[in-house]
Amino acid sequence: MSSTFLGMPTATGFVRGDRSFPDAAVDALADDQLRRNLAHATGTIRAKRLRAVAELDDWEELRLAGEGVKADTMARLPELLEELERNVTARGGVVHWARDGEEANRIVTDLVRAAGAQEVVKVKSMATQEIGLNEHLEAEGIAALETDLAELIVQLGEDRPSHILVPAIHRNRTEIRDIFRRSMPGADPGLTDEPRELAMAARSYLRQKFLTTQVAISGANFAAADTGTLAVVESEGNGRMCLTLPRTLITVMGIEKVVPSFADMEVFLQLLPRSSTAERMNPYTSMWTGVTPGDGPQEFHLVLLDNGRSRVLADPEGRSALHCIRCSACLNVCPVYERVGGHAYGSVYPGPIGAVLSPQLTGLEGKTDVNASLPFASTLCGACFDACPVRIDIPTMLVKLRADAVDAAEEAGGRPSAEALAMRAAASAMTHPRRWSALIGAGRLGSWKKGGFRRLPGPGAGWTAARDMPSPPSATFRRRWRDRRTDGTGGATGTGGDA
């Protein structure tokens, strides 16, 4: 286990599930409807994103610029956060610091009560999902209404988000119609599954809430340290309503969302929409700086959330996970996510970025820690790095976290796993030519011409539980190379099965 994971506070909230990824993935793979929904949605988004990105000749330069700004931010994060606090305060806002999710939930609850409210409207926010704010408020007798359409679908369906950008990606139109008919107050029993009808039903339900609710809670996509300006980007207009109509606005923001200057937002406001919704620009980009008398919320509170981010920042090899701008591009190109969906990851952060971010936020607590399985939820194909707008090297980070997970398991259990023993045996064979030759020869035993072994025995059974074992070729490379050297014509004459 990396020494930087020791002696630091860990994340609280919904960053660790209750099942390992392999166990949860088995159930997801058995859901044919889920797989069809995911394949259709991610395939559509991938194609649109490629077209949007191809419009810019300087896309790679923009990615490099985004990576550079994020690296600069992480290198001097404490001073930038202090600068942000000074500028927010100077413009009439109040800044609160939350060590973990529990502290952030207490701060928000106290602020809502101080405003005399029993109900709040919410802009889509990964940070509040991470800390379980809705559940905490409900336990305190405060109703929290999600206003993003996909988040509303998840909330009414008593479900959990399964995607960073499209939380209800695992639902199709018919399922959404059934949820609205069953759970949305005032919904027309004859509501159809036409997208426009579904959207209008949600709009009618939410409009009165926007006009009467006195407290709104939001996240933030970016915050400029030099001006104290915060920004939320969205596609429906619900965010604009929440950010302008209520009297009190409370923003919960992960500390990594700060950028050094207002001008730096220019880079990310080009990268984010093309990578997420495949649009040239977001339909709604809302920015606010403190409080303006007579215009918009008259009380503004900014809750800066750590919740394990400091421990990630302390690891030079892992801190680039904090560069993430929550675009979800890595999820849409990941072959693993496309087949199992977001719920299998347990954490509110699914997909490739969740596989590296969640274990770092929580730390690794031994072989029984379900988050220790997340770094293995990848083929290491590298598609996530190619798609990432800020060039997070997720594959390299996954390899490191796999090593950390193995070390943590051995430290906690005292004995290496069957997989670790198998890898050690393979390493011993692969570093000795004669051993390797003997191993290849042994592996060719069996009725290969009849289809070969479909399942491996012993420790290999877990690998072939969801994969077919391919039959070996008719001749090994060693045999073909030997034949090329002795043939004289350069042709491979041997077809035998020896090593």
From TrEMBL:
It comes from Nocardioides lentus. Gene3D superfamilies: Alpha-helical ferredoxin (1.10.1060.10), NagB/RpiA/CoA transferase-like (3.40.50.10420). Residues 488-499 have a biased composition (Gly residues). Residues 459-499 are annotated as: Disordered. Residues 411-484 form the Lactate utilization protein B C-terminal domain. Residues 321-392 form the 4Fe-4S ferredoxin-type domain. Keywords: 4Fe-4S, Electron transport, Iron, Iron-sulfur, Metal-binding, Repeat, Transport. The lineage of its organism: Bacteria, Bacillati, Actinomycetota, Actinomycetes, Propionibacteriales. SUPFAM superfamilies: 4Fe-4S ferredoxins, NagB/RpiA/CoA transferase-like. The keyword Metal-binding applies. This is LutB/LldF family L-lactate oxidation iron-sulfur protein. Residues 81-304 form the LUD domain. PANTHER family: LACTATE UTILIZATION PROTEIN B.
